Amino acid sequence: MEIGGKLDPAVIRRVQDSFDRQGLMAHLGAELAEVKAGQVTIRLPFRQELTQQHGYFHAGGTSSIADSAGGYAGYSLFPEGSAVLTVEFKLNLINPARGEWLEAIGRVIKPGRTLTVCQLDVWGVDGEQRIHVATGMQTLISVKGDA
Amino acid sequence: MEIGGKLDPAVIRRVQDSFDRQGLMAHLGAELAEVKAGQVTIRLPFRQELTQQHGYFHAGGTSSIADSAGGYAGYSLFPEGSAVLTVEFKLNLINPARGEWLEAIGRVIKPGRTLTVCQLDVWGVDGEQRIHVATGMQTLISVKGDA
Amino acid sequence: MEIGGKLDPAVIRRVQDSFDRQGLMAHLGAELAEVKAGQVTIRLPFRQELTQQHGYFHAGGTSSIADSAGGYAGYSLFPEGSAVLTVEFKLNLINPARGEWLEAIGRVIKPGRTLTVCQLDVWGVDGEQRIHVATGMQTLISVKGDA
Amino acid sequence: MEIGGKLDPAVIRRVQDSFDRQGLMAHLGAELAEVKAGQVTIRLPFRQELTQQHGYFHAGGTSSIADSAGGYAGYSLFPEGSAVLTVEFKLNLINPARGEWLEAIGRVIKPGRTLTVCQLDVWGVDGEQRIHVATGMQTLISVKGDA
Q1: Which residues of chain D have a CB within 8 Å of the CB of C91?
Q2: Which residue in chain D has the smallest CA separation from C147?
Q3: The organism sits in which domain of life (chains A, B, C, D) (predicted)?
Q4: Contact yes or no for D103/D49 (Cβ under 8 A)
Q5: C113 membership: H or E segment, kind and range
Q6: Per-residue pLDDT tens for C30-83?
Q7: ipTM of this model?
Q8: Residue B4 burial (CB count, 10 A)
C-alpha cells in the first residue's frame, strides 16, 4: 500500500474510534485532522493550558500529538485485530513551538509485520506561516488485540 | 556540586516558580515532588483525562513529566539568569504505564556550560509496587534569560 | 544557503582535508562521494572486515559513515575557524545492511549558530537496487577550532 | 536471571563464537573483555586507524563497540536458537573519546521475549582515570536463527 494513499473508510473509522478513546487527546484539545495510508495528521490548537514556562507549547504537548500521529500512521497499515504500542521515540525540538496550532504528521518509513518505523514532524502554524518545530523518529510494535 | 545533593532554597524556589508557570503541568495535574541538585522528581496522579486507547497513561503524559523533570534537573545547576531549553529527548516505553501515579525522575549525567545531558526514568507506582515504565535520555541547552 | 546547493570549492577542500584526517574512514575504506551545501554523501564498499556475525555490514560501519556524513553536512555550513562535534545521534536499522556498498547521506534539517540538526540515511546499493538500511537523526555543535 | 550474574559457560562460548565472526570487531582491534548475564564489556585499544579529525577516537568506533556490547548483553539472555538484531540505538557523546582504550558496557535494562532494551555506556580509560565518553540506549529484537 502506498504511503499517503487512500484508506478503506472502515480503517479510518477504526483509527477515529481509537483516537476518541484516548482521554489525553480530548483533554489537550487535539483533533484528528487527516488519516491516510501510513500517514496521519493531528492538530492541537493553542491554549494557556498547554504552555511551558515561557508561554510556548510545552514539549509534552508536542510529543503527545507526535506520538499519537505516528502510532495511528502505523496502525492504519496493520491487519484487523492488531493493536499498536510505541516501543520508543526520539524528538529534536528545533524551533520554539508557537502558533495558532501545532500540526503533527506521523509517516511510516518502514512498515513491518512486527515493527514499524515512523518519521515524526511537528509544525507550528500561524496564519500562512508554518515553522518546523520538531522532528523525530518512532518505533512501533504490532500486537494482538483491539486498537 | 554533587548530583542528588542539597540545593540552596533560592534555587528550589526558582524551580518551583518556573514549574508553576508551565500551564501544561497544572492541566495534567502534575506536581513537583522533589528538587535536589541535578535531580528532580515529578508526580502525575492517574486520571481518565491522561489515558491512551487501552486505559493506561498515554505516552504523551509520560513524556511531559519526563521532559520537565529532566529540564529542571539541568536548570537546578545553571547559574542565575539562565533559562533551559530541551534540545532533544528519547524515551523507551518499556512497560505499560499504569498505577495510581507516575513518577518521573530526571537526573543530570553530564552537566555543562552549554549542554547538559540527563537520564530520564519514569515509574508507575501502585501501593508498594514500582514498575519501570520508561527510560530515556535528554539533551538540554542553557540560554540567557529567565527560567 | 540552500541545502543541497553548490558550495565554494574552498569549503569542499576543507571538508575533504578534514575527512582525510579521520583515520577511521581510511581504515574502513570509506570515501567522500559528494559534498554539497548542508548535504554530504559517504560511500563504504563491502569488505569482510566490515561484517557482523551474519555476514552483513556491522551497524558500527553504518553508524561510522552516517555520523561522518552528518557531521560534514553541518560543517559545510559553518563559518571558517569552526570545528564540528557530534552531540548525539540516533539510528534505526530498518533493513539488513548488505550490498556492494553502503551510501550514507547526511542532510541538515535545521542549521544553527550553535546547534545543527541533521537527518541521516544509509542505503545498501547492489547494482540498480537501493535498499534503505538505516535512518536517523543527529545533533551537532559548532565550536571554535579547526575542522 | 540476575543482570550481572554468572552465565553458563556454554552461553559465554556462544557469545565469544559470535563475536569472533564479526569481521568489524577484529578489524578495529576490539576484544570481548567480560560476559555476564545481561551485561557485556568490550575493549578497544587506541590506534591511529580509529581516529576522527582531531586525533580522538571517532564516534564510529565508540558506536561499534557500544552496539556490539549491548547486542551481546541481550543475546546472553536469549534462549538457544535465537539471533539478535539491533532495532535502533541512540548515543550521546558527552566527553572527548580519548585514552589508552575505550571500554563499552552494554547492560540489559528490560529483557523481553521479543524486544530487549539496553543501556550503553562507554568509558575512556587512561591509567587510573576513567572518563565517561558516551551514554545511550539500544533496542534489540530476538529472531529465530543462529547467533
Answers
A1: 88-90
A2: D53
A3: Bacteria
A4: no
A5: none
A6: 999 999 999 999 999 999 999 999 999 999 999 999 999 999 999 999 999 999
A7: 0.95
A8: 12
Give the CB-side neighbour count of residue D93, counting CA atoms within 13 A: 24
**Cross-chain residue pair A24–B67, CB shorter than 8 Å:** no
Cβ-Cβ contacts under 8 Å, D52 against chain C: 21-24
Residue A100 DSSP symbol: S
* 8 Å CB contact of C117 and A94: yes
Query: Residue C27 is nearest to which of D23, D49, D85, comparing CB atoms?
Result: D49
Q: Cβ of B45: how many Cβ atoms within 10 Å?
A: 14
Q: Cell 540545593 identifies what position?
A: B7
Which amino acid does the sequence have at D37? A
Q: Which residues of chain D have pLDDT under 70?
A: 147
Backbone angles phi, psi at C44, to 5 degrees: -135, 100
| pLDDT single digits (tens) A37-69 | 999 999 999 999 999 999 999 999 999 999 999
**B84 contacts A58 by C-beta, under 8 angstroms:** no
Low-confidence ranges of chain A (pLDDT < 50): none
Residue C33 identity: A
Q: Which chains touch C (3 or more CB pairs under 8 A)?
A: A, B, D
**Strand runs (DSSP E) across chain C, as ranges?**
31-36, 39-45, 82-93, 101-110, 115-126, 129-144
Residues of B whose CB is below 8 A from A136: 88
Query: Cα separation of D13 and B50, whole Å?
Result: 48
Q: What residues of D are in contact with residue C92 (Cβ under 8 Å)?
A: 87-88
Domains of chain B: 9-144 (3.10.129.10)
